[in-house]
């Protein structure tokens, strides 16, 4: 591992050239619990197209020298797919005022040095700079406490997110479909949203 880590932010169409790297990182990191994602390039292409189609999307990349070792994304909620927007519409929440965060993925050897916190700062700065958002949000997969693949000593990220000012919204749930490592086809996964006010 080199010591020359750098963090760079890309927006809108600039994101395009980095999608293959993001797909690679997502497939590597999301094999871990609680995601257990059995990565597939067709799913990645479908999923990542929403970012290239959004003029105001953001991608924060961490480089170790020339190698990308971490990534974090976001886009206006209104530019997301129907299954992400629908829970907000059902509760009569104005989706045009919300910026949505996709994922944060870091290779394990780069964790625990503040990059996860930096990902939130960069994406919140980007959302603030667009001037039309009051809230930021993301969603996390719901897995039972007794899930057979939950590693011993696994620590959920809830405290990390709470420290960043996010609060779990049990009334806001979405369903994403992907193929778990021990499944032979995609199945729906329950996701719960977390939200934070961008301004006091
Ligand atoms: C989420 C992730 C990006 C965090 O990155 P990171 O660089 O290790 O986080 P940081 O170093 O900024 O840690 C910030 C704080 O969170 C805590 N933290 C980080 N990961 C944690 C975990 N798995 N469980 C509990 N606390 C955690 C750190 O102890 C630190 O606490 P402090 O502020 O009290 O010192 C990284 O763990 C990761 O890639 N995880 C796998 C993918 C994932 O689950 N992504 C999130 C959903 S998309």
Please identify which CATH superfamily we are dealing with. Answer: Gcn5-related N-acetyltransferase (GNAT)
- Percent in strands: 25-35%
The CATH architecture assignment turns out to be 3-Layer(aba) Sandwich
How many whole angstroms does the radius of gyration measure? 16 Å
**Which structural class do you get from the secondary structure elements?**
alpha+beta
Question: What is the mean predicted local confidence, pLDDT?
Answer: 94
The CATH topology assignment is: Aminopeptidase
Q: Could you give the order of strands across the largest sheet?
A: 1-2-3-4-5-7-6
The strand count comes to 7
In total, how many domains does the architecture comprise? 1
CATH class wording: Alpha Beta
Helix content: 25-40%
Q: Runs with pLDDT <50, length 5+?
A: none
Which ligands are bound?
A: coenzyme A
Supply the number of helical segments: 5
Task: Give a short account of the largest sheet.
Answer: 7 strands, mixed
List the helices and strands in order: EHHEEHEHEHEE
For the record, give the distance between the C-alpha atoms at the N and C termini, rounded to a whole number.
Answer: 40 Å
Apparent shape: globular
